[in-house]
Amino acid sequence: MKKAPTIRDVAAEAGVSVAVVSRVLNEGSGPVAKLTKAKVVEAIDRLGYQPRAAARELQHGGTATIGLMLTDLANPFFARLADRVVWEARARGVQVILLTTQEDPHLEAESIETLIGRSVASVIATPTGGNVEKWKRLATRGVNVVFVDREIDALPDVDVVTISNTTSAEVATQHLIDLGHHRIAFISGPLNTSTGRDRVTGFRNAMNKAGLEVENDLIHLIPFRGEAGSDTVSTLLGLPVPPTALIVGNTAQVRPALRRIKQSGIFVPEDLSVVVFDDNPWTELVSPPLTAIRQPIDMLAHHSVEIAIGRSKRQLPEARRRIQVDADFVRRSSSAQCSASVTTI
Amino acid sequence: MKKAPTIRDVAAEAGVSVAVVSRVLNEGSGPVAKLTKAKVVEAIDRLGYQPRAAARELQHGGTATIGLMLTDLANPFFARLADRVVWEARARGVQVILLTTQEDPHLEAESIETLIGRSVASVIATPTGGNVEKWKRLATRGVNVVFVDREIDALPDVDVVTISNTTSAEVATQHLIDLGHHRIAFISGPLNTSTGRDRVTGFRNAMNKAGLEVENDLIHLIPFRGEAGSDTVSTLLGLPVPPTALIVGNTAQVRPALRRIKQSGIFVPEDLSVVVFDDNPWTELVSPPLTAIRQPIDMLAHHSVEIAIGRSKRQLPEARRRIQVDADFVRRSSSAQCSASVTTI
DNA sequence: TTGTAGGCGTTATCAG
DNA sequence: CTGATAACGCCTACAA
Q: For position B98, what pLDDT does the model report?
């Protein structure tokens, strides 16, 4: 475990000055004779030399690194997002430092500090909803912030990449209405997240448009973490007049909700039609295969990274970008004609 | 976007020297008068000062950061592992920089270089199987390497945290044997990974112990990436005498395999009993709920981080640690008595 | 084409 | 208790 060689060691080994070594390291930062270069390269890998990122960073005053701040990697949606972001970033030679907030604003605040300290060039994040001041400070520091999946209204200046949540929820709702459902329940995320809010809006829109009443009993806003989806389902099924259809607009709660439905001995779609947000690879393997809103994760990742890196190269127009990618509606077998509709109407 | 304040700005603002500021920053690195300290603290958050990690790192010659190198975040197993590792690390005030290799030794090599440049204290990794020299160099540099989930035989000195793969495969196999199966197929990962190898070994052990012949037709070693599991299933089902049971020992191929089984119109467990490696949250929601080997992911994460950090503090005995945690066997409904067993024997 | 020297922001070592 | 000042490893003028 001898200590790492420095640029000086390489210089000595090759019999040249550090400046020359630096020049061969950063291709094109200055002229180097062919022969000299060869000697240096030789020395470099004889010593197994590797430039220290910290020193470079200090000198140059920043890194090309992207900070990726997600709420929860155990959620397959975010896991796949992370996978794609890391991939896209690497394709551009940029590293990713990953932090998770567990939906906790306190941890989020810490993470922001950390990222400032690390002097990352950009951060891609799914904000919890709080820490408005902190986010502002980060942006003021010259860090390019890109929100993905969610946004914060109080921060109208940061770039945002999301799916069209309102429209997606409308589509899902309309689908069920077309099948004759009118008692449709909706489970969404907390109202202080843009996804939670926009999806509920879409749901309401579609219901109103169809002249159907929206009963507050049937709308449930629950946290992303935990298993609240289970109890919510129980509550819904226990209603005097239970819903005939359910939309789960909270990705993280799809599994708990489904679990409870199974336990309750309710049949899908005979007793209850189900549509869920986010199509993960397992969705089609459960019985019945689930009708779902598929979020184009690669697009989300692609645009986020594109913007993040584009900004740090100042190759983007000043104006804040707000990209909405369309989600696909995938019809499978968990949604069907409302059996009650014939008799009830 | 004014530039970030430095320790000097703080010193000026507080009317003291940089040394003093440094001392209040690093609690207990030297004496500071109470009043002075107050002034400094005041100045610090008036300026929103945040020490630059790069400078510290340069000065001190290393970071407390952990490099986490996984093959594929889209695989829920690794996603959950990442989640836990990030969590455990943070609980100890350590950051994680995440890299994925996509099972590609070339990308792995790059990642190793990167990590050296970043002068991380430790790296936790699921090695692809190659790059033996590179891994050695990393270790020689004084970086604490911990392999998790898999190991490399050619590197007998690095710490390893895995589940007991051989035993787990034995248990799974024995379970099927007990149910009267003797034509049992086994899908595993490539032989150049320890998981692939050990699981096959376990399978063979159990078969031999029961005096059953192991037909090579029934053992398939396929890559972790891609959808090879589908074709493999087709091949197996197309055999003159198809197997009555299948163990999928390649976590990433569980989904493709299952998918093809469904498509083939085969009934589980009536026509085919199925046992899979790794119990993810969806496993119990598919029909029928899958009998599975559950890997204790939190234990894997916990021990990995424990070792990684322990080593960097030199608080661990010299000797290499090799931790094997036991996996649980979770019996559900995808495995059943062999219907053919009565007639065939 | 090559070399020399100064500085990036911190911490650590010594004098005051 | 506090304050100068020399590293840490690299890059970049500027000189040779």
A: 87
Instruction: For residue A28, name the pLDDT band (cuts at 50, 70, 90).
Output: confident
Instruction: Please say whether the dihedral angle defined by the alpha carbons of residues A242, A245, A251 and A257, taken in this order, is positive or negative.
Output: positive
Q: What pLDDT, on the 0 to 100 scale, is given for residue B2?
A: 64
Whether B338 and B222 share a structural domain: yes
The answer to whether residues B147 and B78 belong to one domain is yes
Inform me whether the pLDDT recorded for A343 exceeds 50. Answer: no
Let me know whether B290 and B302 are in one domain.
no
What integer pLDDT is reported at residue B213 of this predicted model?
93
d(CA A309, CA A313): 6
Tell me the C-alpha distance between A163 and A173, whole Å: 17
Tokens standing for A280? 């993960």
Candidate from B80, B97, B117 with C-beta closest to A51: B117
pTM of the model: 0.92
A90 CB neighbours in chain B (<8 A) are: 99-100, 107
pLDDT on residue B344? 42
Residue in A166, A246, A170, A160 with CA at minimum distance from that of residue A210: A170
Tell whether A251 and A301 lie within a shared domain: no
Judged by CB atoms closer than 8 Å, whether chains meet at B100 and A114 is answered as no
Cβ of A255 within 8 Å of Cβ of B1? The answer is no
The reply to whether the CB atom of residue A239 sits less than 7 A from any atom in nucleic acid chain D is no
Phi and psi based region of residue A122 (left: phi greater than 0; alpha: psi -120 to 50; beta: remaining): beta
